[in-house]
Amino acid sequence: MDNSIYKAYEDEIQSLEEEIKLLTEKYEDSQQESTFFSDKEILMSIKSLETEFQGESEGRESPSDLKAQLESLERGLSFLMKFTGIQFTSHSKKTVEKTRNRTVQKHRLLGNCHSLSFQLEFQLLEIQNKDKVSAVITDLSIIMESGEDSDMSKFVSSTEERGNLLAFFRSLSCYAEWHEHRRSTFLHFK
Asked: Which segments of the protein form a coiled coil according to its record (predicted)?
């Protein structure tokens, strides 16, 4: 091969390295934007949670109070969706069994996290003893479009066995974010 071909390849390699550097900087900037929320956003979310847990107010609330409360809850939900990347598209709940101190409900959640969609089905067993209510998740089933990723399949299986939804959503958020980055990188080189 002559030097002109080598030069063309070297120029292409250098161009790709510069593009990777720019994309890396852009990614780091977006990470900082998504992980560092302004004090105002954090205070608004805390305030909305405080008003939610203050209990029922006396008498009936006015429509303007209900509207303000709804807007506050919507802002809190928007904040959580930005923070985690998880968006629920559908939820259904069916009461399977209800006694004086025991309730079993079947839940079905559909949603997506970045570009990955998921579906959860589980039963929530609530037992009330005096002033205490305990809840246990049973019969957890997770359906994901994870492709051929065996690590994700293993993780989903272990989560189903343990019934730990918090660990699932935490891991899903991180995995889906990096899955999106890998996908866009591979598309770039095709």
From this structure: 6-33
Summarize pLDDT for 143-184 with one digit per residue, the tens. 887 655 677 788 888 888 888 888 888 888 888 888 777 878
Total count of residues recorded for the chain: 190
CB 145 within 8 A of CB 117: yes
Gap between the Cα atoms of 69 and 52, Å rounded: 8
Residue 142 resides in a domain: yes
Tokens found for residue 117: 């969609």
Asked if residues 89 and 111 have their Cβ atoms less than 8 Å apart, the reply is: yes
Residue 155, pLDDT score: 82
Q: What is the pTM of this model?
A: 0.56
Q: Does residue 115 share a domain with residue 185?
A: yes
Which domain covers residue 3, as residue numbers?
Answer: 1-36
pLDDT higher at 141 or 115: 141
pLDDT number for residue 73:
85
Q: Which whole-number Å values give the CA distances from 9 to 20, 21, 23, 31, in the listed order? A: 16, 18, 21, 32
Separation CA 109–CA 94 (nearest Å): 12
DSSP string, 117-178: EEEEEEEEEEEEETTEEEEEEEEEEEEE--TT-HHHHHHHHHHHHHT-HHHHHHHHHHHHHH
Beta bridge mates, 125: 104, 136
